[in-house]
Amino acid sequence: MYKILIVEDDMAIAKSMKNYLSGWNYETEFITDFKDITAEFIKFEPHLVLLDISLPFFNGYHWCSEIRRISRVPIIFISSMSDNMNIIMAVNMGGDDFIPKPFDLNILVAKVQALLRRTYSFGGKMDIIEHNGVVLNLSSAAIEYENKKIELTKNEFKILQILLENVEKVVPRDVIMTRLWESDSYIDDNTLTVNITRLRKKLSDAGICDFIKTKKGIGYMVE
User: Fold this and answer.
1) CB 209 within 8 A of CB 202
2) In this predicted model, which residue has the larger pLDDT, 185 or 23?
3) What is the tens place of the pLDDT at every residue in 108-152?
4) What is the CATH number of domain 128-221?
5) Going by C-beta distance under 8 Å and a sequence separation of 6 or more, which residues neighbour residue 29?
6) Distances from the Cα of 37 to the Cα of 56, 85, 138, 166, angstroms
7) Residue 186, exposed/middle/buried by CB under 10 A (0-12, 13-18, 19+)?
8) Distance from C-alpha of 20 to C-alpha of 1, rounded to nearest angstrom
9) Topology of domain 3-120, per CATH?
10) Domain residues of the chain, as ranges?
């Protein structure tokens, strides 16, 4: 089931869209707290976002830009600000389509279906992993944390991806080395230790302390 996040401050419109899309077997949620839409996006992990332009605190362009920093999920702008300038701005900020208000719910569903089909017909999925505010961008191999971007080497990225895919589970050292060896030259025990040390330093320098735990004699984990 595809998940759709509705970012619309007119609750009557938001509920109308949610009810109609639910009838088409989409899992939908709408925003009620507009202070940190990025956090709600990460928590819900939608396959598509319906985004108004005029919103409390920050406008839709701002939130589109924030989402685009961590994800390529399709975004449809829905707004009464439908002059050419705003439509061009929406596309330039990373929007995939634009629906002017007022709109027909049948048109909304048709555009949603078409965009989902184009985006996920080849098995697309979310390209971020988030834990405790730390966002690993799978497409750029970088970490996003408190508006800071941390670049990772190929090995550092792979190590963190493995650990975040197994949160609260100890991942044995030999399992990590085997995964690293799949695409790189031979990785020995000492090389893994060096990579873990460098990764921890990068995290610590960015204010992410004690993120990777060592389980002596076994491996590593993220709690």
Assistant:
1) no
2) 23
3) 999 899 888 888 765 545 577 888 888 888 877 888 888 788 999
4) 1.10.10.10
5) 3, 4, 5, 6, 18, 40, 44, 46
6) 11, 24, 21, 26
7) exposed
8) 15
9) Rossmann fold (3.40.50)
10) 3-120, 128-221
